[in-house]
């Protein structure tokens, strides 16, 4: 479960940019585009362009993400994925691979009780369609954010609210059983790529050359020849840097306890995933919280639907409930498909415990003692015996997750 990290989150009070972020993004791009075009004919303008782009890259990598309290863990159904190959324009340098989770124990397009009757009519000056769409998205987001289970991960935090920064929440499409929904609230999570970091390194190499070109190009005749040579060198380094940056893409790294292997295969609408990573607020978009970067990702199992777009979360949590003695498998069922729910259906506390349990065991998997135990011949587990079990000759406990 290796991961890479190029970004660093920053405390709100330690930001380099002022509180009106993400305005630097728009401002710097608008300034850099005409300068970039002009530098094709006037190479010395690179001395202006390169510093602008360095400032942008440093903002992107080290000042864009606001720390919300360290690392966090979550379990959810994989919704839509956002591979870097789908990005275009300057966004292509954002080579992170993004995934989006419907947090347990919620369903697709789950609305709070009383909706839409609880929504007041719009003011006469408002566009009714836009108003009701906004209220619909707010209701969807509130239903998860206020659940007291995992919803705090997507809920607006006082850290950014008190600063007056924008907050909408992360929404994207989700494929339902019969229709594609376009406003599903998610916990957004990202496997990092090195695009922006590689671009920054190339720009650092270019900066002294750009400054030298600005001086040389000002010298008549002889300087013009040297200017052409400098321009060629700058162009070559630029092309190489761009190619390296665009090709350093993020890739999923998911440990599957069933196979004992790490894979990059994802199955939207089917995989139930555990993720752990840094919990941040991303100021570059409409404003939302996310896990960035993902440091650990574990496939807990495959979803079972109780009905169209209704996730059977009791099935997903069954392995944990049995492992902790809250439920037990029917001893007359040799397939372990039927569970006796001694404590009743899973509660919010059960789901909180499931996430904490998995988070603790996955963290323990990195300890020297755990790694030593993994090498013993009687032990065949990869993460923790209470998650993927000890495959001994006499006993094989059920895995945590759907079965």
Topology overview:
Blueprint: H1 23-39, H2 46-62, E1 65-82, E2 97-103, H3 128-145, H4 158-161, E3 171-175, E4 180-185, E5 187-191, H5 195-216, H6 222-247, E6 254-256, E7 261-263, E8 271-282, E9 288-302, E10 305-307, E11 310-311, H7 313-323, E12 328-329, E13 339-340, H8 348-364, H9 368-374
Parallel strand pairs: 5-9
Antiparallel strand pairs: 1-2, 1-8, 2-5, 3-4, 6-7, 8-9, 10-11, 12-13
Helix pairs in contact: 1-2, 2-5, 5-6
Total number of distinct structural domains: 3
Radius of gyration, in Å, reads 25 Å
Number of helices: 9
> Could you tell me the strand content as a percent range?
15-25%
The poorly predicted ranges are 390-403
Binned, the helix content reads 25-40%
Distance between the termini: 22 Å
What is the averaged pLDDT score?
84
The structural class is: alpha+beta
Largest sheet: 5 strands, mixed, barrel
Order of helices and strands: HHEEHHEEEHHEEEEEEHEEHH
Strand tally is: 13
* Shape annotation: elongated
Biggest β-sheet: strands ordered side by side in the sheet: 1-2-5-9-8
Characterization of the model:
By secondary structure, the chain is an alpha+beta fold. It has 3 domains: 22-61 and 195-247, no CATH class; 63-193 and 250-297; 312-403, no CATH class. The chain has helices spanning 23-39, 46-62, 128-145, 158-161, 195-216, 222-247, 313-323, 348-364, 368-374, and strands at 65-82, 97-103, 171-175, 180-185, 187-191, 254-256, 261-263, 271-282, 288-302, 305-307, 310-311, 328-329, 339-340. A 5-stranded mixed β-barrel has the order 1-2-5-9-8. It has a two-stranded antiparallel sheet with strand order 3-4. Strand 3 and strand 4 (180-185) form a beta hairpin. The radius of gyration is 25 Å and the shape is elongated. It starts with 22 loop residues before the first helix and ends in a 29-residue tail after the last helix. 37% of the residues are buried.
